Structure formats: structure tokens, C-alpha cells
Automatic annotation (TrEMBL):
<feature type="domain" description="HTH cro/C1-type">
    <location>
        <begin position="23"/>
        <end position="78"/>
    </location>
</feature>
<dbReference type="InterPro" id="IPR001387">
    <property type="entry name" value="Cro/C1-type_HTH"/>
</dbReference>
<dbReference type="Pfam" id="PF01381">
    <property type="entry name" value="HTH_3"/>
</dbReference>
<dbReference type="InterPro" id="IPR010982">
    <property type="entry name" value="Lambda_DNA-bd_dom_sf"/>
</dbReference>
<protein>
    <submittedName>
        <fullName>Helix-turn-helix domain-containing protein</fullName>
    </submittedName>
</protein>
Length: 91
């Protein structure tokens, strides 16, 4: 993963496992448990857990097959969490 000047992390997402790791890092950066994120989104904690684990599902299998077949690359960008004052963490 590379760091951009905007205090975020960007990385290529070649498969469901990598997507799951990026989602997990985003959740952790927000200080949320799987249960809290699930409640916020109206999902089950199990669904969040399976998504973060990169568990194969029809949607992700088809998505990544289509990306590969079309030569399209998927990237995800993770912003650093805001500082305690709501700012970007810089003084």
C-alpha cells in the first residue's frame, strides 16, 4: 500500500481477500467493532466478519471475474482517521 500526500493509503484490490482486509482496516481506523459497524449498516456481525475475511460469495466472485476479464483494476483508498478535534490529525 502506498501513502498519498493527503494522509491516506491506497492499494490495488485484486481479490476478495484484499478487499476484506481494506474494509477491516477502515473499520478499525474508525474505532468500530464488527458488531457496531453491522448495527450502523443494518447488517449482521457475521456478514461483516465474512466480508472482512474475503469469504467467497456470488457478488464478489462475479465482480472480480468481470474485473479480470475486462482488464479493469480496482483500487481502494483508506483515509487516516480524524484527530480528536475532528481535524486531520495535523497541528
Amino acid at each position: 500500500m502506498e501513502r498519498s500526500p493527503l494522509m491516506s493509503y491506497r492499494g490495488r484490490v485484486p481479490n476478495a481477500e484484499t478487499l476484506g482486509l481494506m474494509l477491516q482496516q477502515g473499520r478499525l481506523a474508525r474505532g468500530l467493532s464488527q458488531r457496531e459497524l453491522a448495527a450502523e449498516l443494518g447488517l449482521t456481525q457475521r456478514w461483516v466478519s465474512e466480508m472482512e475475511a474475503g469469504k467467497p460469495g456470488k457478488l464478489t466472485e462475479r465482480l472480480f471475474a468481470m474485473l479480470e476479464a475486462t482488464g479493469v483494476r480496482l483500487y481502494a483508498e483508506l483515509d487516516e482517521p480524524a484527530g480528536p478535534d475532528g481535524g486531520d490529525g495535523n497541528a
